[in-house]
Design brief:
2 copies of one chain form a homodimer. Chain A is mainly α. In chain A, 53% of the residues lie in helices and 5% in strands. Chain A has a two-stranded antiparallel sheet with strand order 1-2. In chain A, helix 1 packs across helix 3, helix 1 packs across helix 4 and helix 2 packs across helix 3. The radius of gyration of chain A is 20 Å and the shape is elongated. Chain A binds a DNA duplex through helix 3.
DNA sequence: GGTATTTTACTCGGATAGTCTATGTCCGAGTGAGTCTGG
DNA sequence: CCAGACTCACTCGGACATAGACTATCCGAGTAAAATACC
């Protein structure tokens, strides 16, 4: 049970976009080169983010992506769900219904096993819901040298 | 990102084993029929549980599995980790090291993105760690008719 | 100079392909409780 | 009646098959900014 790389890429891309000036956009190509990942495949992830209205892309030259809402209104969960979908990590197959001792007897409530797993799932989601791109930006500023941040910013808006 | 069916099966099997009398064992075949899942494949999951020393199997006729420790010392997390391994759900590929602006500069600390994901992962684990087979047994007794529980017990110890 | 056309640099989205994992099947080897056999 | 051999039901674990998901790659269509051509 492992999250795909696209999730990691998507979050890093959103992080980059959240550091942009007003009116600025970054193209898929630039994002791909900056992160060292295949352009075409990254594009799929960005499309999904766009479909979830987290980012917004424009066509043509000078086109590219930017955030579609304020960075403090975009949580990690939003991004993860945009890429991975909203399925729970545990899928109950109602195994208990196969019990040969049950005849017509109807089962009440949800399966006890599923209940526990769903609760854990919800704890995971809660944690991701609490963190926004602004929080990420703050820890970045704390852990990365101002010099590197500036050089990266210039690299991204070069051409 | 979805947990495999084996996790569900494993927990249900442990639940059954935790309801057993002293000295009793249940065979893979019986467990498979009881849950309506393929015997050979379920066997793989049970082997992993045995390797993690959660259950204990004996060979020969009258052989089968039983819990290897008291039910209140077996958490959902133990079972999940026995089946799925101990990998975190998020795998950091150190994408930030691909930044073309970094030259020799060494990165300090763990990636801010990974940090958040790991925290969510830990919340998930905490929740699973808190629930044991005894807790599961309690909710079962609350939600399932005593009649069905008894019939199931008899079915499991039949020959 | 202003308008129309072309070029160019992007995104969008469908088609395809390889690899990996989850799922499931098959079978031979090992084990040990119960059964059988020979004295 | 008892010891040793045998049988059978079970676990163990490796090999194999299949389906779906993940990770890509390629390309044609659409779009819009910029460059060019034309009047």
């Amino acid at each position: 049970m492992v999250l795909g790389n696209q999730v990691e890429w998507a979050i890093h891309c959103c992080s980059v976009l959240s550091g942009l000036g007003v009116g600025e956009r970054v193209s898929t190509k630039t994002l791909a080169e900056f992160h060292g990942v295949p352009k075409e495949y990254l594009s799929k992830a960005l499309q999904q983010l766009a479909q979830a209205e987290i980012i917004d892309g424009t066509l043509g030259p000078k086109g590219g992506y930017r955030l579609n809402k304020p960075a403090d209104q975009i949580s990690f969960l939003d991004i993860v769900e945009a890429i991975e979908g909203r399925k729970t990590t545990f899928q109950c197959t109602e195994i208990r219904a196969n019990n040969p001792c049950i005849k017509g007897e109807k089962m009440k409530g949800i399966c006890g096993v599923a209940q526990v797993m769903y609760r854990a799932d919800e704890a995971w989601r809660d944690e991701l819901r609490r963190v926004t791109l602004v929080d990420l930006q703050k820890t970045l500023k704390k852990n990365v040298s101002a010099d590197l941040l500036q050089r990266s910013g210039e690299w991204l808006s070069r051409d």
